[in-house]
Amino acid sequence: MNIEDNAYICALNRIFGFKPKIGLTLISQLGSAQEIFRLSHKEKAEVLGTHSRFVTEICMKRVEEAAEELHALERQGITFLGYTDENYPRLLQDCDDPPIGLYIRSVSPHKDIFNRSRPISVIGTRDISPYGKEWCERIVAGLAACKEKPCIISGLALGTDICAHRSALENGLPTIAVMATGPEDIYPYRHRSYAERIAATPGCALITDYPPGTPALPVHFLRRNRIIAGLSEATLLIESKIKGGGMMTARLAFSYNRDVYALPGRIDDTMSQGCNLLIREKKAEALTDMSSFINNLRLSPERQFPGNGASHMELTSLYGSRLPDDRIVQMSEILITIRKNRGIMLEDLACSIKTDYRRVAELAGILESDGLIEMDLLQRCFISHKR
User: Which of 61, 70, 168, 332 lies 20 to 30 angstroms, CA to CA, from 147?
Assistant: First the structure.
């Protein structure tokens, strides 16, 4: 698709941004975006209605403005992907309200962003608790240990979103940030460094369907959420109150017939009430252990463990290509300690091997996802005997 063709689609995206179904219906009926702008005033009135504001907005001036906009964005490393392009995300096309186009900032071509890795959205509250943060990091680390590396999708917001993006980057997974602003703006500003890192990492991208100059208004986040849900094969809700953006995204994913998972929590914890509600309504499956979660996603460990008594040498052969030796030593210490103290709490495990709790949780999450250890909801650790 050349820049002229893209300009027509881009113009339609600007005109029908909040009502993409109308624009997409016109493309389907007339065969292309160009044909829409070739309609006479009378024809547009017949198709859209005499009093429709879109009748006057569909004009060549909007196409010319779009062409200038695209040339300017190209100099900033921002591209535009129209709905009719062969690289437009298939999963998003399957939804009944996909955006007419997407602005994309990435060092990778479009086909390498949307067609290589299985997309999984990780979403939740901005007021993430230590419990939610820990599990978000452990889950992403566990997914990074799978043979087929999934792409982590979220919204670059405070709390759960940035935790998911950061964990993906730290564990070598591609990640896509769906923004509620124009492509040249980053919100919140404090996440600019992460946004720049995402844009500069192969396979990762910043995307939005909002044109340049769009501010971060509440209504824009609601529209943004449908893209997060639509881009993903599965959606995982980490924490949420009964009402919130995370709940909306999870419900949208359910309406798109996508797999939805929720991290259960205490019944008296307001930050877990949304997750517990979705589970009770049977709109989400409870995430109770990493092994089942990974199996349900049809992912598999990168390499099989030789057994539950893996030695330091065996751990080195398994993880030496992606983990430094000091972490492999700590993994070995974790396994030895669990063997000697069946059911040891994760916090006590960290104290026993004199290692930072966060590091132990991360490494234990990897071992659990690969089936070498098991952890229950109370964070008691056991050697797995399933392999």
Answer: 332
**Tens of pLDDT along 332-381?**
889 989 888 888 999 999 999 999 999 999 999 888 888 888 888 888 98
pTM for the full model? 0.79
CA distances from 147 to 15, 172, 174, 246, 386 (A): 43, 13, 14, 28, 19
Give the position of tokens 């539950």. 308
Beta carbons of 335 and 364 less than 8 angstroms apart? no
Count Cβ atoms below 10 Å from residue 56 Cβ, excluding itself: 10
Query: What is the Cα gyration radius of the chain?
Result: 23
Helix, strand or coil for residue 383?
strand
- Residue 194's closest CA among 224, 173, 163, 218? 163
Measured distance CA(66)–CA(34) in Å, rounded? 13
For the chain, domains (ranges, CATH) are 1-75 (no CATH), 112-296 (3.40.50.450), 312-383 (1.10.10.10)
- Residue among 215, 155, 151, 204 at smallest CA distance from 179: 155
Residue among 172, 174, 118, 165 at smallest CA distance from 137: 165
pLDDT tens per residue across span 302-343: 544 444 445 566 677 678 777 888 888 899 889 989 888 888
Backbone angles phi, psi at 151, to 5 degrees: -100, 130
Tokens standing for residue 93: 């096309």
